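lol ok so funny story. i was supposed to be doing the assay writeup but got distracted and ended up predicting the structure for this chain instead. priorities right. anyway since i did it might as well share w the group, maybe its usefull for someone
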Amino acid sequence: MEIITLDNELLRQKSERITTFNEELLNITQDMIEALHKGKGVGLAGAQVGFMKRIFVTHIEGDGVRVFINPSLLETSAETIVYEEGCLSLPGIWSNVTRAESVHIQAWNEKAKPFNFTADGILARVILHEIDHLEGILFIDYLTELKRKRLLAKYRKA
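and the output, tada:
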């Protein structure tokens, strides 16, 4: 499973709800986890590997691997924090992004079990970043036009 990069139009498309939980989904989930580890990332959405379904996986240092299917953002904190973000689909590009400090979501795991989940800090940021991917939004979309153009020029030059 290869991670697609910025020039692939799939990154700008909305992902569809998952309606079938089966062996194929379990295999895709495992492949996504392997791709996440191979890319040395902390989060990976289905769209980043060309699987246009509402799924993402996370693996934060000090936390286990987590699978989120059909996530719904229920609440975000009013408190925000600025932190440097990158993306496996935009290798070598990093920039500060302001996001909510904590989130509360509802999702399903790969075994079709629903759960509610609250996260803060880095995990909350990763969840918000990956939910954005499901909507066709990239972290660079939060930057000023000038900053975005500079980073994209640097990305294309590399």
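The mean pLDDT is 96. The beta strands are 43-45, 55-59, 65-76, 80-85, 95-100, 102-108, 114-120.
back to the writeup now i swear
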